Amino acid sequence: MMKKILYYLVPLATAFLLCGCLKDMKDGELLHGNREVLISIDLPGELASLDKSGFKVTMRNTKIGNTYTSETDAKGETRIDAEYGNYSVIISKVADVGGISKFLHATRDFVLNKDGQSAGTNNLEIKATARGTIILKEVYFHKTKTADGKANYNYDQYFTLCNNSDDVQYLDGVGVGFHTSFNSGKSAVYNKFWLGSTSTELRDSIPVNAFGFVFPGEGREHPIQPGEEVVIALSAVEHTADQTSRPMNLAADNVWAMYIDRFAGSAVKAPAAGVERLECFCELASGNSIVLSISSPAIVVYRLPEDPYEYVKDGAIKGRPYGKVMYQPTKYQSMPSIMVPKEGILDGVEFRSNDTHVPRLCSDISLQPLFITTASYSGQSYIRKVDESASEIVGRTVYQDTNNSADDWIPLDEPTLCTEYKNR
C-alpha cells in the first residue's frame, strides 16, 4: 500500500515543482528585464520657435531610486534603456522667451514593463515658468549641539532670502511658510491628502502652517536691491560660543524675527531688542510656537493674491474639501493650513530623507526634492549653488534657480552665518 502511495505522490510532487518553476520563470519575465524608452517633447504656443535640443531629461525609478540622465537632440527626442519598474521622468531647461529668462519643464509618471509603458512619454508638453526674483538662498533647519556636545541646541533655525533678479524688489507682503506635512513620506495618508483628484498630480494650492507671517508694509516700504539679502530667524538673538557648537548672531541689522508674544516660554526665544518682527496675520495653528521639521521640511516663499488678513478671515471649516484655510480631514483633524495658490509662490525648496518619498511641491515650484541623509542636530546647512556664468555677466553673485531642489542646492558643513561669526 505504501509503495502505491509513493508511486502516485512522486509524480504529483514533480508536477507541482515544475509548475512552480514555470510560474517563477513567467514572473521573472514580467518583473525583470530592460526596455528602451523614447522620450520626446512638444513646444506649444510662444515656445514653438525655441531650440528643442539641450533639454535635460532625468528618469528616476520611484521604487528603488535608480536614476538615468540624458539630453534631447535637435528633434526634441532622447532614448533611454532602463529596467522594468515605476518611473518619473523630469524634463527641464532655462531659455529666453520673449526677452525674459524662463524655466521650461515637464513631468510624467509611468510604469515600464515587457509590454511597454502604461503612459506615453511622447510629445510631453513643455510649460514655461518665470524665474524667481526673491528666492531662498540658504536654509538651516537641522539644529545643532550645545557647546559641550552633551545636549541638543534648539534655538538657531533660520532662512536667508535674496533678490536674485536685476531689479529692485519689495518685501512688503512676502511670507515664508512650511508645508503642513512636516516631514517627507511615501505612504502616509496625510501626505497623500494633498494630492489632487487623480492621486498623482499635486494640487494647485500649497498647504502651509497656519501661523502666517509676512513682511509688513503697504507695497514699497521694504525695498531689497539686486543681490541684497535678509535673514528670517525663529530665535532672533545672538547665539554665543559658550551656548552652541554653531555660534552666530541672529540679532544683526538684516535679521527679522518670526515671533509673536504667544510663543513666550516655548521652543523659540523672544527676539533681541531692536530686531524687527514679521507681521503675523494668522494664528489658527495649534500650540505655542512655530514648528519646522529638523529632518526634511518643504519651505516656500509666497505673496498672497489679496490682503493676508482678508484671505484668512473666514477661517477653516471641518469637512470642507477646498478653501483658503483648510483642515486636513484624516490624521490631524485639529490642524488647519493656509492654502497658498501655486501662482502666489515666489520660490520653494523641498528636502526628503528617503529617496522613495513622494514630492510635496508641484513641478512649477520644484521638479524634485533634494535627497539628504544628514542627521538632525548635525549643525549642517543648505545653500544654493552659484550660477557662475550669470554672476560673471552682471558682476555680482547670482544663484542657480532651475526650480529643481535636487540640482540647485548643496550641503554646508556649517551655516554661513556661523562661519561669518567665527571670522569676525
TrEMBL record:
A Pfam match: DUF4876
Top-rank lineage group of the source organism: Bacteria
Name of this chain's protein: DUF4876 domain-containing protein
Species for this entry: Alistipes shahii WAL 8301
